[in-house]
Design brief:
GO cellular component, one term: TRC complex
Strand order of the largest sheet: 2-1-3-4-9-8-7-5-6
Largest sheet: 9 strands, mixed
Keywords: Metal-binding, Repeat, TPR repeat, Zinc, Zinc-finger
CATH topology of the largest domain: Rossmann fold
Low-confidence stretches: 228-238, 243-283, 436-440, 442-467, 606-631
CATH architecture of the largest domain: 3-Layer(aba) Sandwich
GO molecular function: molecular adaptor activity; zinc ion binding
Radius of gyration: 31 Å
Pfam families: TPR_1
Structural class: alpha/beta
Strand content: 5-15%
CATH class of the largest domain: Alpha Beta
Protein name: C3H1-type domain-containing protein
Number of domains: 3
């Protein structure tokens, strides 16, 4: 019998995985010929050849991605013709819930993603169609991303009624016995297999080989002992926790001895802060969680450094304020806000200094921001009331002083301010010979909360990381080079840009996207279900790495959709020039207020029968905005690139002149070489 040929697909080129699955690869090499392929063009050529492989093993989730759709369809065709395709190893680590339904539908199986946990599973003694189970372990503990809705004769392993989750942190709980970490189904004349094991367990090696119809009788034990964690000893001494020790300490899968009083539970038992719901951890772990934590640690250090510097500026400003140097105090409070972020206390102090300088409008805006972010800040309401009173906004000032009185009923000063403000209002109304009912004097904070509800993004445990303080990283500041300075880099926002700081395209955030915990720019159109480009979009289409308690996961999402649709009615382009910076948290406090005022004015004009919109000069007043003509050119260019694999029409023409097609793997390398000439 001739040796079998196995095609191993590694299109994500994650070389670290080879070391993790070396036991599987060495076991396969002992009984078969392996062909490792990292390029989609080569994979398609092999699958379409007159001598296709005996079986295919996909060790990453590339076939689930939209850009590899044609390859996945070719794999389905190959299986239906009698081939075997197995998805395993690092596949489940990148298997996104967003792509699961489409992926399984393409394969014609009713499967769906299930839970992610470690438990003990048992071999299906009734047998699995098309798969020899002889020699497989009768049971073993496995940490896996399970699948559900699998037919009984396609289930390789499944938990029993006594199986429990196994964790060092969370209490043992019952598991869904209808889910499986390993499934195998007939596809036409061939077969498709799935293993959700994320740790390359030794018994899973045999499962994958059995799915590939390879003999498993010579598979030896995996003697590699990986590190499962790190410990900190006295004096900060680091130590490694071997995987074997980690597994020996796991909860017994068949044990029901969890203490009823919860004394053995060592998980997160934190409550809520200021009525804010705690972040709920996803059932399925995020594949790049380690990278997120590393970035968060670096960001925390930067935030702490900047906050310390901002506190010094604030204290210095307080000293100048006390000696009557209000102008210098304003400068220092402003620097504190820019160094770290506009904390309510900084803004309230700024309002106090501006009041002393009789800059009433600016003082109102500063105090307005302070109360918007912290609705419990009494001094913020009082100072805004003073500023509004001097601006002639008597009704708003009275409401602010009344709020202060509600917070501190024993303060006679508030009653005095209310009486004095009403007296001034009545005097002005008598002068005008018409009494104002207050309808035209609307509290601007009501408008802000109605339209944007910005305070939530600044609240503890809900703050977007871009609001902590602007990043110092090169990627955050990188705005591209040359003529492509304003165009987002699709590679950076999707799979990563290998050109780094010399990339001609923009890595920095803009008004059409929001920064996630991996530093990618996520499409705002996508988050409100308004993106027409789909997989062709330059920005990331995934909210997995955005904070789980952001507006994109809440009921207020409908409010953003309505706002966008309203503005879109009379503005073909540049909607996010108006609202994007408020949605992603990058707008400075003054621009947020100005954009809100513009929106309120636009709404008023529309309600009165006027036309919605603004003059060309208004574009320059919006934070991060561009001229209307430039924005339209931007949209047209994006349309071209969405049609042409990311290239403009002129770039496609140039590539064709060089004998290169836009879908060739090296097309971007050629284009970058041409641009550098």
């Amino acid at each position: 019998m001739s040796q079998q040929n196995i095609l191993v697909l590694s299109l994500m080129k994650e070389e670290y995985i080879y070391r993790i699955i070396q036991h599987l690869l060495s076991s396969m090499r002992a009984v078969a010929t392996l062909k490792l392929v990292t390029r989609v063009k080569e994979a398609k050529a092999i699958l379409s050849s007159n001598a296709p492989p005996t079986a295919v093993l996909a060790i990453d989730a590339a076939p689930t991605e939209a850009k590899y759709r044609s390859l996945n369809e070719l794999l389905v065709h190959y299986a239906k013709a009698g081939g075997i395709v197995v998805f395993g190893c690092n596949f489940s680590n990148h298997f996104s819930p967003r792509s699961a339904d489409s992926f399984f539908r393409t394969w014609g199986v009713p499967w769906a993603l299930g839970d992610y946990h470690r438990t003990t599973v048992y071999l299906n003694t009734s047998g699995v169609s098309g798969m020899d189970l002889a020699g497989l372990e009768p049971s073993y503990s496995v940490k896996a991303l399970n699948v559900t809705k699998v037919l009984p004769n396609s289930v390789v392993y499944s938990p029993s009624s006594s199986s429990r989750t196994q964790s060092h942190v969370f209490p043992a709980t019952a598991v869904d016995t209808s889910q499986t970490p390993a499934a195998y189904s007939a596809i036409g004349a061939g077969f498709m297999g799935y293993t959700g094991d994320v740790n390359a367990e030794a018994p899973t090696t045999k499962v994958i080989m059995a799915m590939l119809h390879l003999p498993i009788d010579h598979v030896g034990p995996d003697e590699t002992d990986w590190n499962a964690g790190t410990t900190f000893g006295p004096g900060g001494v680091l130590g490694n926790v071997p995987l074997s020790a980690s597994l020996n300490q796991s909860n017994d899968s068949d044990s029901d001895s969890d203490s009823s009083d919860g004394s053995s539970y060592i998980g997160n038992k934190h409550g809520t802060a200021r009525g804010i719901l705690p972040r709920v951890a996803p059932t399925i772990p995020r594949p790049r969680e380690a990278e997120v934590k590393a970035r968060a640690l670096r960001r925390k250090k930067v935030n702490e450094r900047k906050k310390e510097a901002a506190e010094k500026l604030k204290e210095k400003g307080n000293k100048f304020f006390k000696v009557g140097n209000y102008k210098q105090a304003v400068d220092l409070y402003n620097k504190a806000c820019k160094t770290y972020k506009p904390l309510p206390l900084y803004m309230s102090n700024l309002a106090a200094a501006l009041i002393k300088l009789e800059r009433w409008d600016d003082a109102e805006m500063a105090a307005d921001h302070a109360t918007l972010v912290d609705p419990t800040l009494l001094k913020g309401y009082f100072r805004r009331g003073v500023a509004r009173r001097h601006c002639g906004k008597y009704q708003g000032a009275i409401r602010d002083f009344e709020r202060c009185l509600e917070m501190d009923p024993n303060c006679a000063n508030f009653k005095t301010e209310i009486a004095a403000t009403k007296k001034e209002r009545d005097a002005e109304n008598r002068y005008k010979k018409s009494y104002d009912d207050g309808d035209s004097d609307v509290d601007s904070d009501y408008e802000a909360k109605l339209v944007f509800d910005l305070g939530r993004d600044f609240a503890p445990e809900r703050t977007l990381h871009v609001l902590d303080c602007p990043s110092d990283s090169e990627e955050y500041q990188h705005r591209g080079k040359g003529k492509n300075v304003k165009l987002p880099c699709r590679y950076y926002n999707h799979d990563g840009c290998r050109f780094g700081k010399v990339c001609r395209y923009k890595h920095a955030p803009d008004d059409s996207s929001i920064r996630d915990e991996l530093g990618r720019n996520v499409c705002l159109h996508f988050l409100i279900d308004r993106c027409k480009f789909g997989d062709r979009c330059w920005y990331a289409h995934e909210n997995l790495y955005l904070p789980s308690n952001g507006w994109w996961n809440e009921e207020n999402l409908g409010g953003w959709q309505e706002l966008y649709d309203f503005v879109k009615q009379d503005m073909d382009h540049g909607v996010f020039d108006r609202i994007g910076s408020a949605m992603n948290g990058t707008a400075d406090i003054w621009r947020i207020r100005e954009n809100l005022d513009l929106l309120v004015d636009d709404w008023t004009n529309t309600a009165e029968g006027g036309s919605y919109g603004y003059s060309d000069d208004d574009d320059d007043d919006c934070y991060g905005s561009e001229r209307g003509g430039s924005r339209r050119r931007f949209e047209r260019e994006m349309e071209e690139r969405s049609r042409n694999m990311g290239f403009t029409d002129s770039e496609v023409h140039e590539l064709l002149c060089q004998g290169v097609k836009p879908w060739d793997d090296d097309a971007w390398d050629v284009m970058n070489a041409l641009n550098s000439l």
